[in-house]
Amino acid sequence: MKIKPFLGDQFLLENSVAEELYHNYAKKQPVIDYHSHISDEDVYSDRQFESITRVWLESDHSKWRAMRTYGINEKFITGNTDDYQKFEKWAQTVPYTLRNPLFQWTQLELKRFFSIEKLLNKENAKEIYAETKEKLQLPELSSRGILKKMNVEIAVTTDDPVSELVNHKNISKQKCGFKLLPTFRPDKAVHIDKKDFRQYIQLLGQSANMPILDFSDLIEVLTSRIDYFHENGCRISDHGLEYCYTENLDYQVAEKALKRKMSGMDISTHEAVVYKSVLLFELGKMYADNNWVMQLHLGAMRNNNSRMFNILGHDAGYDSIGDFSQGKNLSVFLNRLDAEGKLPKTIIYNLNPKDNEVVASMAGNFNDGSVKGKVQFGAAWWFLDQKDGIEKQLNALSNIGMLSCFVGMLSDSRSLFSYSRHEYFRRILCNLIGKDVVNGELPNDIEFLGSVVNDISYHNARMYFDF
Q: Where exactly are the transmembrane stretches of this chain (predicted)?
């Protein structure tokens, strides 16, 4: 039996059709990364990373989770130990992440960015650390250099409505070879039940030079911020929700909830959900008026470990897949907007694989022929953006919707090295189609299939987003 080389040209490609589709079509396409959490400050300043630790371990809570599971002390993860000590502990962990996507991603990034094919482990950690540290000072591995190296045409960050988008504005005046654009993410204005909500609303008002005293003020300020973001290239919004909020649209209750909260008083769970429902509905209409894309990231159960949340705060690796009911609320939310003629282009990301078919079928209810793939079942997200999760998402989309209209993959990452995951996705996509050809389930028409692969990898996203 012939064993394929690890991460070779045939990586994730099981037959010659898949290889041809990837190497002759998908591989060549530029990247439109329409959802990420990369630092606009890093890109603007063209940051040269001091060490690979800063790229890999500065904010990647997936690696933090793996290190904790392997028994690494927290001081080597989020503590004040030096860069090499943290890297050495990650190197010690990596071999034992086998069959977790972190194993392949780690080695793929070493190979693509540093031409290092040695398998990282505790024994060679010092050697690889030194080699990567030296190469990270090269121009092609600065923040902007990485984007160019990975053929990124458009990179989209995730931004709070209070942001002045200074880095985006400055970059737009320069010739970088790529665009850096913002996303409008108003979660802090929606989640009225959070402890810091009152302080945030005051800050939001200051960003528009207008105090927020009632619900109409809030809408006026958010409208102003949307206009400001639009002027600076924003064409996408984003919401991180457990599920869509769809209580009765009682504006009086929403008004009461906001005023009580801003006065320092407690509000009921019912009042909070009504407020969220009304505000989401109003925001959706604003997005439609501006021809924006609305992204809905559904299903994360966040900050499960209260002890560690009190120590490290959010985004520290203590979130998980939630088991919320999605279908009914998603239907009500989309239908309300559609009935008003105000349903924007929408991408729905699902975190629980049990709901893949629910979301795929729901998207089809609101495609009205006005835009190709107006409502999308979004790419496999977070815990699911690995081979099995990506294949399940692609299969659900193929079986219930139209794979050919899909806007493709995104990095959804804080690490610039994660752009290699576009390659990872494209290989999986080409392999699925290649297997169907070999099995006689699709015709062996490479030119046509290649054009579909190109669309999913690049062209569909370019047409869908009004950049």
A: none
DSSP state for residue 456 in the 8-state scheme: I
- Read out DSSP for 417-437? GGGHHHHHHHHHHHHHHHHHH
Q: How many Cβ atoms are within 10 Å of 380's Cβ, its own excluded?
A: 28
Whether residue 310 contacts residue 293, with contact meaning beta carbons closer than 8 Å, is answered with no
Q: At what angle do helices 446-454 and 16-24 cross, to 10 degrees?
A: 50
Altogether, the residues listed in the chain come to a count of 467
C-alpha neighbours within 13 Å on the C-beta side of residue 224: 18
pLDDT, residue 466, reads: 85
Beta strands in 44-125 (DSSP E): none
Query: Which tens digit of pLDDT belongs to each residue from 169-192?
Result: 999 999 999 999 999 999 999 999
Task: Report how far residue 336's alpha carbon sits from residue 176's, in angstroms, rounded to the nearest whole number.
Answer: 42
Q: Calculate mean pLDDT across residues 412-418.
A: 95
Looking at this protein, which amino acid is placed at residue 386?
Answer: Q
* pLDDT given at position 149: 97
How many CB atoms within 10 Å of residue 397? 24
DSSP 8-state secondary structure symbol assigned to residue 28 = G
Closest CA to 38 of 171, 135, 127: 171
Comparing CA positions, the residue from 352, 353, 333 lying closest to residue 343 is 333
Q: Give SS3 for 238.
A: strand
Q: Please determine, for residue 1, whether its predicted confidence score (pLDDT) is greater than 90.
A: no
Token readout for 219 is: 């809408």
Return the C-alpha torsion angle 212, 214, 218, 221, nearest 10: -50
Q: State how far the Cα of 100 lies from the Cα of 175, in Å rounded to an integer.
A: 39
Pairing of strands 320-321, 300-301: antiparallel
Which strands make up the sheet holding 152-156, listed edge to edge?
Answer: 31-33, 152-156, 179-181
Q: Tell me, what DSSP letter sits at residue 233?
A: T
Give one word for 409, left, alpha or beta, with left for phi > 0 and alpha for psi -120 to 50.
beta
Torsion sign over Cα 36, 42, 47, 53: negative
